[in-house]
Specification:
Structural class: mainly alpha
Number of domains: 1
Largest sheet: 2 strands, parallel
CATH class: Mainly Alpha
CATH topology: Double Clp-N motif
CATH superfamily: Clp, N-terminal domain
Number of helices: 8
Order of helices and strands: HEHHHEHHHH
Distance between the termini: 19 Å
CATH architecture: Orthogonal Bundle
Helix content: 55-70%
Length: 161
């Protein structure tokens, strides 16, 4: 699958690993891919996110808020949770199901569109197609319509493709 990824898309995947490690996460999750897209300017996905008011800081805040809401829903205070000691900083984070599914969906989207290569926009579309999980809940928490964002990404891919 990764042989279809353009250089920028491979860099997004690598950056997601860096972000996961920086956050002391033992796994690379879908939200790490989303943050990587927002962190790396110069691609259509970054531009679409920024135009929607979703820069790196805004996404980080939305994801933090979602994590706090999720913990509160089960009666746990986010302040009481220190997960920084869970991950071994010397170990490379493994790819979690949410991130793997997003990357698989990006391939499916590219094939359905007739695109031969996977761009960062395809990764964003793969993330936006999730109906459950942290990313869709975080976007809902900041009143972002994933369908509208998908249309914007599709349009940007049409212009670059």
């Amino acid at each position: 699958m990764f042989n279809r990824f353009v250089k920028e898309a491979r860099e997004i995947a690598t950056q997601a690993q860096v972000i996961a490690r920086r956050q002391a996460s033992p796994t690379v999750e879908a939200e790490h891919l989303l943050l990587a897209l927002a962190e790396r300017p110069g691609n259509s996905a970054h531009t679409v996110l920024a135009d929607a008011g979703l820069g790196h800081e805004e996404l980080r805040e939305a994801l933090d808020d979602e994590n706090e809401r999720s913990l509160a829903a089960v009666g746990v205070s986010a302040a009481a949770c220190d997960l920084s000691s869970v991950a071994d900083p010397a170990k490379r984070p493994r790819w979690a199901t949410s991130a793997n599914l997003a990357l698989e969906r990006s391939l499916t989207v590219a094939v359905a569109r007739g695109d031969r290569r996977i761009e960062p926009g395809h990764i964003l579309l793969g993330l936006l197609q999730a109906t459950i999980g942290t990313v869709p809940r975080a976007l809902e928490g900041v009143d972002i319509d994933p369908a509208d964002l998908e249309r914007r990404v599709e349009a940007s891919l049409d212009q670059t493709g």
